[in-house]
């Protein structure tokens, strides 16, 4: 299975960290091979060992790491027992590395040119002018406009996409034969994501080997020739991209693919990753506690990575052959039945300007009007900084608009003084973009949720508490977490506590600001289900803010598209996503559609991919 | 970049602060008990009194009989012309007194600052990220920070000057007379700065960009010196106000311990002898130095940290 | 086959040979703070009940002047035959009172000052912070000289002097912290839930501003003790007969040639007390940061 | 005069530089203005006086070759030495004498001490170039002694004409002023053309030393360390504890002389507070074993004072000590009981009507020296045994002078050097209060005492003066106006190479005859 001409080949890689709390086996036996001009993608949920694997490949697993492998060769030479000096000769020169944290991987105190040229400074001895020229051409190569000027700037003066590209430019500066890119597109806008991926694809096509790490299946679908799926430090499935993404064998891969929201008009598939147990340790399959197919054998013995029935894929599952076909999505249940209901929130010609550093003001929201009806889910999309959160704040009455006004149930709202607004606050609630920061770090879950229920009277303490517990049940949590504080909760739990708090006052309107952006697809799916239930059963109106078109498609009936503080398009979700009228909407959609030129089939799994044949 | 606008704003604030400090010391010192004329006449602590005739003359000469507000106005007027008035005791203009004593003090403070900073740099860069060295040296630094410098000075003086005779016991002549004072004044600064710098280095070394730098094939030394050090210098620059305060304050104590002439001695003598114009003068000089150096260091911070340049204030 | 690829420390300086004590401290991270706590509590105990542990610090006995440490006079005697142990023990109260008093005063004033700046309008903020600038611009020792000049020398005015120069530091930190907390998500959340402003300030802002102040305060106590000792040394401290550690050192320095004990032990007392407080402060900070970062 | 230091001998050699560390500093170098003892030391080599004090009551010619006193004792006519020039080139003449004396009494010069030395001065008349006549408002016996001090050294009229801020001392003495850095050092250089030594001088002509440098180093340990480490040749105020080891070291010697004048005493406020009761004052005398304390603190180097005046003062009366309450704790207790301080509070201090027996003794760090603070602590501890609390608030100069002015103290300490018993008038005459420019801090107000002191000052009969002073000395001790402390003693440490240093009757070191063994 390792091609003889592989540029990089690793067998049975193991990484163990020595920590205060004992050893951590982050990678427990990973075999990989990458050929020149090809792209291997490693996918898997957070913590599965992807980054550690990548760092081990350049000898930077960490000072507390012990790395071993049966073989580990690069360009025909063994990497095992390489001295520090020889490692340095490889790093940057033969292997380019793009670190996971794109926004913080450039030294913020140095100019872009110095950062990009550092591999050259270390490995080649170039003259000043030659170096400057090289930097400029590298920046040009990665598609940074106006490279001469950008080279003189500092990282913080560049947008995320530009920074990511500069990082890639630095990784390829010395002409490496292998580029390892760890999550190169997380935290980027969809439009920018596409640009970065195109760049990597170009490099691959030019003959560089690419090892791509991602948890985003869309990204993988666009780029990879070969895919390895990791779970709990193990590769659980591996094979050609088309095969793994279209005919997944391992239950984990299948659950992963099924959970992702899509732009498919048929709507989402039923949630599959229902049980969210952590990877299991000890002997046996690490996925057993989450797996519907788990039996005694799965508990007793770790399955080996072996070929599955027909295809060239390998999977680590006892039930690989017994796999049923993927369930087909159920029809959309989201109707347009709310059009006749009363308007609960009316935003009328609202504008807001902010003072910007260095003097002057900047328009964050510009003449925005819309209305929200009871029981309706209204989507609000737009790139970062387009003013979505600002609108949420204005709707809540946390921020006064400069022009225009907001009406709540037809009565004035934005014009009231805070004490007059306070009695009505319970009717409109907010789920903030970042739930953790919205919890007082000293407060327990009970106090966090309880704050919205008013001060408990001495006799009502028990009732107060049972109300909190009831709310927790509502969002799928139980009383065991009552005494925890925000930082002690997992991401999904935090989000659900934030929702429970917002539900406490029994609001008519919920403003949800990116409620799922920070979550794994699996948890995402659960939370979206909860919102649906709320809306359907309680008639709560939702203003749903997201930059993820898949999520909007899954949740909403109507959608507003924002750009630079103004609404550029508005209409039913199906119409806007499938027959966009405004150029910006089309751009948004184009960014998430697959690249037809590569001929690879866009899969239905990507959260933001568009079904085949859509005009772009 | 550091704009003209920024400089203008800082200059304005600086003037405000200096005026504030001047007013503060004027008010403070006029709240004092005791008749200034008697203090002037008594030469700061004679047990014999002074005749009415002399007192009247002094009152006349210094304008003590005028209302406070008039005195304040005259004080500000003089100040604007760079005149700090006559010392009550030294029979000299305050500006002369201060200018005369500035040299030794500047030599002391500057040398100690350089030494303190240099030592801290060596300690921090040499030991950051090396747990053994770190535990050893941070204990040492803690000791530096926690030991009163006058005591260190006395011990050093006893051992190296009295016992071993390596350095002069007192006086301002030559570099030899500065070695022990420099060391004494530098140690607490070294301690604090090394602790802060090491912390900054460590934080920087834990940042993703540090891994990126290594992934480019750079050596650990290059990472430390070319990248992490700048990050470690930022908190040090932020601490500049503290360092400066420690220096200027330390000067007072060190000059006493080592029997050196200088502004610190002038200040102590003036306070003890209630020489108000001199006290005010020293406070103002310290304030001006503080404002100027702090502004310069703030500007430097903006140069080192480009992220701050867009931010006002 | 097993190859350790990256088990050794990064290249650079050779590893420093470690003292056994340092190794013990590194291997058992609780040991340092535990020792510090024990020492600090012991000092507090001595300060609280000096008479239970030592005799009269003022009792003179010229015949037994300049004795080296020996049973009977554990830490030796000074020029007047006063027992150094008794003086150090009785001085603990004055020194600790100075350190804690000055810090408490500074914290109290600084916190109120910073909260006012952080919660008040732009104008209040500007005004109060410019005043803080003025106070910060005058170096601590000079400010202390000034305050002592106004209030006269002596224990309380030294404490006030130190407090005056520390307070603006507190005010600044509190102000920044208040502004951070004021814009924190949970303050918004509470407002959105309809909590009154008084409730928001009382339940969210103040409680979240104060804990870092505790850490800052701990670190300031040690420095206040040192500053107090320095001012005593300069002759601005409490009465000469008080046995505040700084004045003990000041007394002893002229007789280093006659007896080392009176000049060494008060200095050690200061250094060890300040170290123990710093170690405790650092521990507190680690715990505090650990909790919010986790 | 004191002994000459060192054991090495041989003929004096010219040249060399001597650094002399002093423990005090002065605010001006004008001896007519600055009262400090150190000013006397530093300006003595610069200025010659009209007369020199050659014995307790004997005066010999210096700049004045002869003098006559009018029968009523109010007119002094001095014939001046000819051919003398100030170091700035100005000739020395009658006008210079007149200028100097007028300068001293001119209120503009703000002289306190020097002016008080010649309080009855009325004016001078230039009779001719080399003859000057000085008129006094009343007979004034200590006049010649006053003229012999450096504080009345004759100054160049040209130097006196400049504004005070630019003042530089210019005299006719063996050394000329070079530079002064305030609070730091003073440098003098030899006057090569010196021709006017006093009649009792050990040699004539120029001084031997080329350069004299006085450095101000207030820390005892530092001065001592500087001497023993060889950095300097002489130090003032050797710490008494160290005298023994210096003397036993052949490389160094110690010159010692007891200073004339008022001892270091604790003056008790007889006007206000508990000390207004003579019984309390006497109790204090009896309660404190001063000789034991002084002996221990000063390692036997300073004598314990048993009188108001030091033994080297002319007209000092040995017998007066009998008027002092001897150390007797039981007696002290009895006196306090008698005064009504019979109660005791929790801390063991005596009380009367619920009032604690607390005496306030202000402390001014600025003027502390000779370990007076330590002696103070010892006295506090002793007083405590007798049930008396002594409170020593640490004051700054302003608060201190206010306290002195308002009489809000019970004890004040000071010493006052002067080689004439007339100093008693300055300290105890009822008219010589602080407010009036005097130093009567006991606030004694006794016509009888005033009478003795006035008569002694004006009489020309030495025997009458001696009797009056003896009565006064006994009276102030008996009345408990003071608790005598120690006899101020000058302990000068030198390297053995420094020879020929002597003391004048006032205890001021003389450097004219000093020389360095090569
Ligand atoms: N230096 C280290 N010391 C101890 N444990 C570590 C270290 N680095 C990583 N780990 C652990 O190794 C495991 C794998 O981490 P890794 O960073 O490879 O995950 P990942 O798959 O990249 O996840 P993500 O998608 O969140 O980036 C995690 O449990 C992590 O906590
Ligand atoms: N308090 C504020 N002061 C100054 N500028 C602000 C403030 N709040 C928002 N802005 C600016 O207003 C613009 C819109 O911000 P907003 O947070 O509404 O964007 P967003 O669409 O929510 O973006 P994201 O998707 O990144 O959350 C941005 O340029 C932002 O920098
Ligand atoms: Mg990762
Ligand atoms: Mg937002």
Offer a quick outline of the entry.
The complex is a heterotetramer of chains A (616), B (313), C (294) and D (518). Chain A has 616 residues and is α/β, with parallel strands linked by helices.
Describe this structure in words.
The complex is a heterotetramer of chains A (616), B (313), C (294) and D (518). Chain A has 616 residues and is an alpha/beta fold. Chain A has a domain at 347-433 and 508-592: P-loop containing nucleotide triphosphate hydrolases (Rossmann fold). The model of chain A is unreliable at 265-277, 328-336 and 594-616 (pLDDT under 50). By secondary structure, chain B is mostly helical. Chain B has 2 domains: 2-80; 94-308, MetI-like fold. Chain D is an alpha+beta fold and 518 residues long. Chain D is built from 15 helices and 27 strands. In chain D, β14 (343-344) and β15 form a beta hairpin. Classes of the chains: A alpha/beta (616), B mainly alpha (313), C mainly alpha (294), D alpha+beta (518). Chains B and C meet through α1, α6, α7, α10 and α11 of B and α1, α5, α6, α9 and α11 of C. The complex binds adenosine-5'-triphosphate (2 copies) and magnesium ion (MG) (2 copies). One magnesium ion (MG) binds at residues 388-389, 433, 513 of chain A.
Features:
heterotetramer, A: 616 residues, alpha/beta, Rossmann fold, six-stranded mixed beta sheet, globular, disordered C terminus, C: 294 residues, mainly alpha, 71% helix, elongated, disordered N terminus, binds magnesium ion, cell membrane (chain C), membrane (chain C), MetI-like (chain C), MetI-like_sf (chain C)
* Low-pLDDT residue spans of chain D: 1-8
CATH superfamily of the largest domain in chain B: MetI-like
Shape of chain D: globular
The shape of chain B is flat
- SS summary, helix count of chain B: 13
Q: Kindly identify the CATH topology of the largest domain in chain B.
A: MetI-like fold
Count of β-strands of chain B:
0
Strand content of chain B: under 5%
Task: Name the quaternary structure.
Answer: heterotetramer
Mean pLDDT over the residues of chain D: 90
The unreliable regions of chain B are: none
Distance between the termini of chain B: 13 Å
Q: How much helix, percentage-wise, in residues of chain D? A: 25-40%
Report the count of strand segments of chain D: 27
Which structural class is indicated by helix and strand composition of chain D? alpha+beta
CA distance, first residue to last residue of chain D: 25 Å
Report the helical percentage of chain B: over 70%
In order across it, which strands form the biggest sheet of chain D? Answer: 8-9-10-1-11-23-12
Along the chain, the helix and strand elements of chain B come as HHHHHHHHHHHHH
Sheet bearing the most strands of chain B, described?
none
């Amino acid at each position: 299975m390792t091609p003889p001409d592989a540029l990089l080949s690793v067998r049975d890689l193991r990484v163990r960290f020595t920590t205060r709390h004992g050893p951590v086996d982050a990678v427990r036996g990973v075999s990989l091979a990458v050929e020149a001009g090809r792209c291997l993608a490693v996918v898997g949920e957070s913590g599965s060992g992807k980054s550690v694997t990548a760092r081990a490949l350049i000898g930077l697993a960490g000072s507390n790491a012990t790395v071993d492998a049966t073989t580990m060769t690069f360009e025909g030479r063994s990497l095992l027992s390489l001295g520090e000096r020889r490692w340095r000769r490889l790093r940057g020169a033969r292997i380019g590395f793009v670190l996971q944290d794109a926004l913080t991987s450039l030294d913020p105190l140095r100019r872009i040119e110095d950062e990009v040229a550092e591999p050259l400074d270390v490995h080649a001895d170039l003259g000043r002018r030659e170096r400057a020229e090289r930097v400029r051409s590298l920046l040009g190569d990665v598609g940074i406009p106006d490279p001469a000027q950008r080279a003189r700037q500092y990282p913080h003066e560049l947008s995320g996409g530009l920074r990511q590209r500069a990082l890639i430019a630095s990784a390829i500066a010395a002409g490496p034969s292998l580029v390892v890119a760890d999550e190169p597109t997380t935290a980027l806008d969809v439009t920018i994501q596409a640009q970065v991926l195109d760049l990597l694809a170009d490099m691959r096509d030019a003959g560089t080997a690419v090892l791509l790490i991602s948890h985003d299946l869309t990204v993988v679908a666009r780029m990879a020739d070969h895919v390895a799926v990791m779970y709990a430090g193990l590769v659980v499935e591996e094979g050609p991209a088309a095969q793994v993404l279209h005919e997944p064998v391992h239950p984990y891969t299948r659950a992963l693919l099924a959970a992702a929201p899509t732009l498919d008009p048929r709507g989402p598939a039923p949630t599959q990753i229902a049980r969210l147990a952590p990877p299991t340790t000890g002997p046996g399959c690490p996925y057993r506690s989450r797996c519907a197919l788990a039996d005694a054998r799965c508990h007793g013995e770790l399955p080996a990575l072996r070929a599955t029935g027909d295809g060239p894929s390998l999977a680590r599952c006892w039930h690989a052959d017994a796999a049923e076909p993927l369930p087909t999505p159920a029809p959309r249940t989201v109707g347009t039945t709310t059009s006749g209901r009363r308007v609960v929130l009316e935003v009328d010609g609202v504008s807001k300007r902010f003072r910007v550093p260095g003097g002057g003001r900047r328009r964050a929201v510009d003449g925005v009007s819309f209305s929200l009806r009871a029981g309706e889910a209204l989507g609000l999309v737009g790139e970062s900084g387009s003013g979505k959160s600002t609108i949420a704040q204005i709707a809540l009455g946390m921020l006064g608009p400069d022009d225009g006004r907001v009406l709540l149930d037809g009565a004035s709202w934005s014009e009231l003084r805070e004490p007059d607004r306070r009695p009505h606050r319970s009717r409109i609630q907010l789920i903030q973009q970042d739930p953790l920061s919205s919890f007082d770090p000293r407060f327990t879950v009970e106090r966090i949720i309880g704050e919205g229920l008013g001060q408990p009277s001495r006799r009502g303490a028990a009732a107060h508490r049972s109300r909190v517990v009831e709310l927790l049940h509502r969002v799928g949590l139980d009383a065991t977490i009552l005494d925890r504080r925000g930082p002690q909760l997992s991401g999904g739990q935090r989000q659900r506590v934030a929702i429970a708090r917002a539900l406490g006052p029994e609001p008519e309107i919920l403003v949800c600001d990116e409620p799922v952006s920070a979550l794994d697809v699996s948890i995402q799916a659960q939370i979206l289900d909860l919102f649906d239930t709320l809306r359907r059963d309680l008639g709560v109106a939702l203003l749903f803010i997201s930059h993820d078109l898949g999520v909007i498609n899954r949740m909403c009936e109507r959608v507003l598209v924002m750009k630079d503080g103004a609404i550029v398009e508005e209409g039913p979700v199906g119409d806007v996503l499938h027959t966009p009228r405004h150029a910006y909407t089309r751009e948004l959609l184009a960014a998430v559609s697959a690249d037809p030129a590569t001929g690879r089939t866009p899969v239905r799994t990507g959260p933001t991919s568009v079904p085949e044949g859509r005009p772009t | 970049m550091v704009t003209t606008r920024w400089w203008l704003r800082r200059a304005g604030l600086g003037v405000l602060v200096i005026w504030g400090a001047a007013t503060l010391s004027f008010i403070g010192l006029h709240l004092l008990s005791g008749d200034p004329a008697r203090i002037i006449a008594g030469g700061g602590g004679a047990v014999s009194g002074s005749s009415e005739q002399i007192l009247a003359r002094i009152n006349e000469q210094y304008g003590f009989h005028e209302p406070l507000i008039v005195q304040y106005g005259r004080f500000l007027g003089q100040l604007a012309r760079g005149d700090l008035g006559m010392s009550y005791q030294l029979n000299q203009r305050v500006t002369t007194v201060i200018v005369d004593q500035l040299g030794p003090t500047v030599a002391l403070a500057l040398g100690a600052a350089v030494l303190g900073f240099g030592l801290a740099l060596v300690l921090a860069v040499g030991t950051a990220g090396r747990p053994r060295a770190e535990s050893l040296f941070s204990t040492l630094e803690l000791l530096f920070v926690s030991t009163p410098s006058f005591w260190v000075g006395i011990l050093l003086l006893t051992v190296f000057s009295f016992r071993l005779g390596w350095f002069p016991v007192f006086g301002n002549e030559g570099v030899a007379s500065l070695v022990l004072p420099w060391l004494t004044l530098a140690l607490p600064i070294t301690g604090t700065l090394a602790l802060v710098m090491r912390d900054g280095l460590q934080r920087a070394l834990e940042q993703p960009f540090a891994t990126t730098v290594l992934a480019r094939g750079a050596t650990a030394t290059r990472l430390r010196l070319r990248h992490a050090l700048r990050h470690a210098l930022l908190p040090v620059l932020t601490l500049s106000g503290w360092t400066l305060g420690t220096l200027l304050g330390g000067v007072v104590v060190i000059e006493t311990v080592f029997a050196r002439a200088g502004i610190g001695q002038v200040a102590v003598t003036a306070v003890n002898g209630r020489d108000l114009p001199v006290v005010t003068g020293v406070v103002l000089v310290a304030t001006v130095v503080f404002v100027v150096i702090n502004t310069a260091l703030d500007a430097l911070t903006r140069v080192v940290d480009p992220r701050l340049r867009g931010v006002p204030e | 086959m097993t190859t350790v690829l990256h088990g050794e420390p990064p290249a650079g300086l050779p590893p420093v040979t470690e003292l056994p004590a340092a190794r013990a401290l590194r291997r058992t991270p609780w040991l340092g703070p535990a020792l510090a706590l024990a020492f600090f509590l012991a000092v507090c105990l001595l300060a609280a009940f000096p008479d239970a542990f030592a005799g009269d610090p003022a009792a003179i006995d010229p015949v037994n002047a300049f004795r080296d440490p020996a049973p009977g006079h554990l830490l030796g005697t000074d020029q007047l035959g006063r027992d150094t142990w008794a003086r150090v023990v009785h001085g603990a109260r004055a020194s600790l009172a100075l350190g804690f008093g000055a810090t408490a005063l500074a914290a109290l004033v600084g916190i109120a000052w910073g909260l006012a700046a952080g919660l008040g309008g732009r104008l209040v903020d500007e005004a109060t912070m410019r005043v803080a600038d003025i106070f910060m611009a005058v170096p601590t020792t000079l400010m202390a000289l000034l305050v002592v000049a106004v209030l006269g020398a002596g224990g309380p005015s030294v404490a006030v002097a130190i407090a005056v120069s520390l307070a603006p530091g507190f005010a600044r930190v509190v102000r920044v912290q208040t502004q951070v907390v004021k814009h924190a998500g949970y303050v918004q959340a509470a407002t959105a839930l309809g909590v009154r402003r008084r409730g928001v300030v009382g339940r969210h802002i103040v409680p979240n501003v104060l804990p870092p102040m505790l850490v800052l305060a701990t670190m300031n106590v040690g420095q206040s003790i040192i500053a107090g000792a320095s001012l005593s040394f300069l002759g601005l401290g409490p009465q000469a007969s008080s046995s505040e550690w700084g004045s003990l050192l000041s007394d002893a320095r002229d007789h280093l040639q006659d007896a080392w004990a009176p000049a060494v032990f008060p200095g050690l007392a200061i250094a060890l007390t300040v170290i123990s407080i710093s170690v405790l402060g650092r521990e507190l900070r680690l715990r505090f940061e650990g909790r919010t970062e986790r | 005069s004191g002994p000459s230091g060192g054991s090495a001998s041989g003929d004096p050699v010219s040249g060399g530089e001597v650094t002399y560390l002093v423990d005090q500093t002065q605010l001006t170098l004008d001896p007519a203005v600055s009262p400090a003892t150190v000013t006397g030391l530093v300006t003595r080599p610069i200025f010659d006086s009209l007369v020199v004090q050659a014995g307790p009551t004997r005066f010999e010619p210096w700049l004045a070759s002869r003098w006559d006193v009018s029968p009523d004792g109010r007119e002094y006519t001095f014939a001046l030495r000819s051919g003398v020039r100030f170091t700035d080139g100005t000739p020395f003449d009658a006008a210079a004498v007149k200028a100097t004396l007028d300068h001293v009494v001119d209120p503009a010069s703000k002289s306190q001490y020097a002016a008080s030395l010649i309080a009855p001065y009325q004016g001078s008349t230039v009779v001719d170039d080399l003859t000057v006549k000085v008129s006094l408002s009343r007979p004034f016996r200590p006049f010649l002694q006053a003229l012999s001090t450096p504080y009345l050294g004759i100054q160049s009229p040209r130097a006196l004409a400049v504004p005070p801020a630019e003042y530089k001392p210019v005299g006719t003495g063996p050394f000329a002023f070079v530079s002064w850095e305030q609070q730091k050092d003073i440098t003098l250089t030899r006057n090569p053309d010196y021709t006017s030594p006093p009649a009792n001088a050990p040699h004539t002509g120029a001084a031997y030393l080329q350069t004299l440098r006085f450095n101000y180093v207030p820390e005892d340990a530092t001065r001592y360390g500087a001497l023993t480490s060889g950095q300097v040749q002489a130090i003032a105020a050797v710490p008494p504890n160290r005298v023994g080891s210096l003397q036993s070291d052949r490389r160094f010697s110690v010159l010692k002389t007891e200073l004339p004048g008022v001892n270091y005493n604790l003056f008790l406020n007889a006007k206000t507070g508990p000390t207004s009761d003579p019984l309390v004052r006497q109790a204090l005398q009896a309660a404190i074993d001063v000789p034991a304390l002084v002996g221990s603190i000063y390692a036997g180097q300073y004598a314990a004072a048993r009188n108001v005046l030091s033994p080297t003062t002319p007209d000092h009366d040995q017998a007066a000590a009998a008027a002092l309450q001897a150390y007797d704790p039981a007696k002290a207790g009895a006196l306090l009981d008698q005064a009504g301080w019979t109660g005791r509070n929790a801390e063991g201090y005596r009380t009367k009507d619920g009032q604690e027996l607390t005496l306030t003794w202000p402390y001014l760090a600025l003027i502390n020296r000779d370990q007076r603070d330590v002696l103070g602590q010892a006295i506090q501890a002793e007083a405590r045994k007798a049930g008396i609390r002594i409170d020593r608030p640490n004051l700054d100069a302003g608060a201190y002078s206010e306290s002195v002015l308002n009489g809000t103290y019970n004890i004040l300490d000071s010493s006052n050097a002067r080689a004439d018993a007339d100093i008693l008038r300055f300290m105890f005459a009822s008219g010589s209060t602080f407010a009036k420019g005097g130093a009567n801090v006991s606030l004694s107000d006794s016509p009888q005492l005033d009478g003795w002191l006035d008569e002694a000052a004006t009489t020309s009969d030495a025997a009458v003066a001696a009797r009056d002073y003896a009565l006064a000395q006994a009276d102030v001790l008996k009345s408990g106006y003071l608790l005598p402390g120690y006899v101020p003693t000058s302990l000068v440490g030198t390297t053995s190479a420094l020879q020929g240093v002597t003391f004048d009757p006032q205890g001021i070191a003389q450097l004219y005859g000093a020389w360095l063994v090569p």
